[in-house]
Amino acid sequence: MTARFVRLRIAGFKSFADPVSVDILPGLTGIVGPNGCGKSNVVEALRWVMGETNARSLRGGEMDDLIFAGTTARAARNMADVTLTLEGAAEVAPAPFTGQDELQVCRRAERGAGSGYRINGRTTRGRDVQTLFADLASGARSSAMVSQGRVSALVNARPEERRTILEEAAGITGLHGRRHEAELKLRATEANLARAEDLRIQLEARLGDLQEQSEQAGQYRELSQGLREAEIALLALLHARAHKAVADGETALHAARRDLKAAEDVAESAVIADYEVARTLPALREELDTRRTELERFKVRAETIADELARAEAALEAARTRLTECETVHAAAVARRDDATVMRDRLVAERAQVEERLSALPALREAAQAERAALAQAMTDMAKRVEQATTTLREAQLQTTQAREVLDTATAAHERLMAQRAELATEIAGLEAAMPTEAAIAEHDARITEAEQSASEALATREAATHAHSQAVLQAGLARNAATESRRLHEQATHDANAVRDRLDALERNIASVRAHVEKARASLVPETERQRLTQVAGGAEAALAAIRAELDAAEDARAQATQAEIQANARLKDARATRHSSEEALRGAQAARQRAQGEVDTLAASMERLRAQAVPDAELHALVSRREAAEAALEAARQHMVATETAAVAATRADEAGAGRLSQARAALSGLEAEADGLARALHSDSDTGHAPESGATLAESLHVPAGLETALAVVLSDGLNATLKGRAPREWHDLPATTPAPFPATDIQPLSTLLDAPPALSRALGAAGLLPDGMDGAALQAALAPGQCLVTRDGALWRWDGYAQAPNLPGRAALRLKQLGRLRTLRTELEQARAGIPALGQAASTAASAREQAARELEAARTARASAENALGACRTLEADLSRRHATITAQIDTLAMQQDTAAAALKEAQAACERAQAQADSLPDMARLEQAQKAASTQAAQAQAHESGLRATRQQAETKLEQARQAMQATMSSHGEAETRLQAMQPELARLETDRDALAAELATRREHLAALPAPDITDAAARQATTAASDAEQALKQARDAVEATTAQLEHARTTRAGLEQAMRDTGARLEARRARMADLSLAVAQADEAVGNARERLAALPDIAGLDHALGALRARDEALRAQEHERRDAVAQLQAEETALRQRFDASLQELVQWTDRVEAAALEAEAAQARLDNARAEHERLAPEPVAVRARRDAVTTELEQYAASHDVAATALQQAQDRQGELQAGRRTAEEVLTAAREELVRAEGRREQAQVLLAQLQAESQPPAGVVPADLSANAETGLRRKLARLTRQRDELGPVNLRAEIEAQDASGKIDTILHERDELQSAIARLRGMIGQLNREGRERLMAVFSQIDQHFQSLFARMFNGGRAHLGMVGNDDPLQAGLEIYAQPPGKKLATLSLLSGGEQALTALSLIFAVFRCNPAPICVLDEVDAPLDDANVGRFCALLGDMVAEAGTRFLVVTHHQLTMAHMDRLYGVTMQERGVSRVLSVDLERATEMVDTSTT
């Protein structure tokens, strides 16, 4: 394997926004990192650069998805670039790079533009890149790229899909690509051959069509002659009709001028009548404007009163709303006052009930305590009896259990030893019988010597047969190849000679046809003298026509100027008349509008002066606004003060309630602690009395401060010593003795009790000899090792003394209970002192909070009173401001309206004055009408003269053009005939020369091919030689097969003999060693059996001497039942006392709390009463305001009705004036309609005149155009000038044209085209022969590729199967497996099936194994392929995920062996720590920035060396 993958560079691919490089070094390279950081993107980048074309297999929808798409902090990239560097690739590089040792394969993708490949900077096809990696047993989809899911895909793949693994191992993946290219070329060549045949058939069909086209040419000429005759007749008819149209236009023009004169008289009468009516309209308009002004003024007053009514109704509605709110607030205040009164009365009754219950509780509590004390004494006595009985029973049970365990152990040991001795005796007898003899070994040695001699002879025979077979096969192959080649050359030469002969015949026919056409073209040429004469005639006609056209152009310019001057004169006259009439009308209208605007301006000025006199001063309005704003500010301040006061009152109330609650809780807690402490003190006192406490000094239990959890252990160790005194004289006391050095305990984890608590010196010996065992440690095993005086104890009360005494855990004991009660009593007394110290401070805080609450209530009432006063003052200010604002707004609105109307009227007046001035100036600037009429008549006379001159010149030009056209047609026909003949002659002469040259070349080629065919040997001779060589090869193969069978038989005999001889020697040695060991073991077992018999007897005697366990257990059960009954009674009495104490405490707390609540509810009753009084005051104010505002809307409505009546009167006057004006305007409209009708008639007459002039001009233009384009045909006078005659001629022209068009295009070059088609057919035949030869070569190449692929595939299959079997056994630590070709006899089409049998299972296919077994089997197959055809690189993407640690270890060891054997470089993506430990180096893929991957590298070998160096 020469090529090496050394580096991978990634830039812009998926999550790799920045360029990164991954060095692919020898050995194992690991890629690690958390999920989702981009590890698999490295693998996909490698697959992409090696030619992967499916974006979905790279986890993308399209190629653009592989480009970095951007994050919230980074913009997207438009290009992705991956470069793979290879070294040592000189032998496998593609053609342009052959010999280059280093290749850089780069693939670059641009967004929206696809991707491309480059090798060493040069653009390369993707297929070349894929073939390069396929030749290296790599590639995007090769078995060396084991991506995520590839193992499962290999397991689930069909056998045909698994065949690709064998193809990669055989190195024929590239052959598949080349075969595919050859097949594509073959299909393309076959397609080209089919297209060439189709083209040949088409050309042959074309030759027949050319004859039909020659016949169509004759029909075409006949139809063209008929068309020319019909066109001449139509031209004569058009000229005659044009002359007649000019005469008709002159007659219609004179009639239109008479109608125009009559229409002008009628229009003048209508204008005079309209003027008379328009004079009466200004006075009517002025009257209407006056009425409208008065009506608008009263409308303004009505609108002002309507606004005032709306404000009054809004104020009344606001007062009504405030009244409703005050009523609601008053009702709520009264309800709160009543609720507070009810709660106060309920608290008084509750306090009386609590006080009665408290007086009865002391007697009940004393009775319950007396009963509890009696039960406690009885329970103490019973506990002592139960403890004594329990100790006796446990000692007996322990001894019995130990004795039985000893007996069972001894019995089992005795039975086991007896069974072992019997088995050993049987085995010794068998070994003695199986020992081989020396005679048997000597006999096998003689057999081995004979087998070796036979094997040597067979091997010599096989070597000779092998050499003979090889020579025979070689000679047979050469003979078959020679025969095949001979037949192929003979057939090819015959085929080529026939093809050349056919092409030569076709050329001879084509040459004869072309020569006939050349002679015909020469006969069609026109003489030079005739062509020169026609040219001179056409030149003279062109010169005459040019002179006439120059003169006609000058006449047309003169006529156009005269016509334009006439049109301009007519337009000026018409515009002057219309302008004069419109100027007079505009002047009269502007004067009337000026009079109306002046009257409206005067009326509005008078109304403005009157309203300004009634306006309200702004100072008075501003003063009221300031007062109202001050009142609003005062009300807002009062409201804010009240809100702050209410907030403070609520906070004070809550603080008071919280303080009272805390005080009550503290008192209740103090009562509970006192009750519990008192109960414990009495219980301890009663216990002391019962136990005869010492008269002087405190006991040890009262003096010790025992840590929590050690009470039971200390009570078990000291027992009655807890009731002894430390100082003073007493029956029980502790003496202070000198300290001694305690003996060590058997285990180091044991702690002396003296180190765990602070005890007096008198206890140093007792506590130093007592050791506390850790939790979970058993003291029974350590009891025998205790020194005199020592004991072991656990926290739950288990005891082991040095003298053999042991005590079970969790036994009831008064000493432990007393120690716990004393500890709890000390804790309770400390808590009591803290609680009593905190109660005075809580009481003081509660008193302070109550005072603050009362002060907040008083401030709240004052704030509410201030708010009510501010609200009353604000209401008065708003009422005054509303009245004055209403007056001010009404007058201001009227003034603004009049000001707008005054501005409008002034603007209208100014506009009317300007309009009058413009109309007068326009009327003064009008031109003289008489002068314009005289100029119009002169222009008309000049235009008529110019038109007559132009018409004469047009007739002359028509005649000259006709002569020129006839000369040109004659010359064009002659030149066209000559040119066509000359063109055909020039085209056919080179073709004739080419055909003759091709004919000579084909004749020479035919002679050469016939000579070559004659020189070839006969195929029969080579076929006979091939058959003889094949027969000889078959005989040699049969002899070789017999020699091989003999060698295999003799070799098998020799191996069997040697194996049997070695087995006998080994069996003799093994049997002797085993026999000696068994005899020694038999002696030891006999001694052990005797000792076991003695141990069993001793155990049985000890078990019989133990006491009866059942009697002791029954007595202990009776005592425990009586103890449980006493405890239940004692608990009931204790619960009763606690309930009475808790009830008394709760009742006292409730009694004290009810007093505070009673005071609070009394305060609430008073506050609610004050709030109800304030709400009543606000309600009275709201009612007064509502009564004050109620009459105002009624008064405003009365004023509105009066103004409405006046408004109706003014509206009626306005309607009368409007009616009169409308009637005058209607009369004017009727007159104007008549005037417009007259003007329309006048306009129609003028238009008719213009149309008549246009028709006359059009007829003249049409006639001139006909005369200019053509002259009337000489001697042709149409008899019928009607439209039907023209229609008949046009139909005839259309029919002839249609018939000529139906013929289609006529090819006058049909003969020349036939010759071209014949030549193309010959060329196609030649190309067809070449394509058939290419097809034969391609099919031979495909067959050769298939043969090579089959040979290489079958050669590598057996190797892979062997490697797979060995690797499977190694990966599974046993088992067996093999591969099989299934589905087809052709190896290139067959499938690959995997059969596996893990250790301990049956043989099965791969799909029936577990997930881990499937993964190991698939990896075994992949590595077997590597051993046959190692790839330069192998990528494993998390393939160790389904493997356990043991399999991962074997997997990593196999990777190391593969590196050492083949030099393959592995890229391993993993999460497994054991896999990471086997890597030579690690690349860590991280995503410190979200969405952007980075790569970090660690060389583990280098790191290990550095660590070793630093440690040394």
Characterise this structure.
With 1512 residues, the protein is of the alpha+beta class. Among the domains are: 1-142 and 1433-1512, Rossmann fold (3-Layer(aba) Sandwich); 700-836, no CATH class. It has a six-stranded antiparallel sheet. A six-stranded mixed sheet has the order 8-17-18-3-19-20. Strands 9-10-11-12-13 form a five-stranded mixed sheet. GO terms for molecular function: ATP binding; ATP hydrolysis activity; DNA binding. Residues 573-587 have a biased composition (Basic and acidic residues). Residues 573-595, 933-982 are annotated as: Disordered. Residues 7-1493 form the RecF/RecN/SMC N-terminal domain.
Features:
6-stranded antiparallel sheet, 1512 residues, alpha+beta, Rossmann fold, 20 strands, Chromosome partition protein Smc, 6-stranded mixed sheet, 7% strand
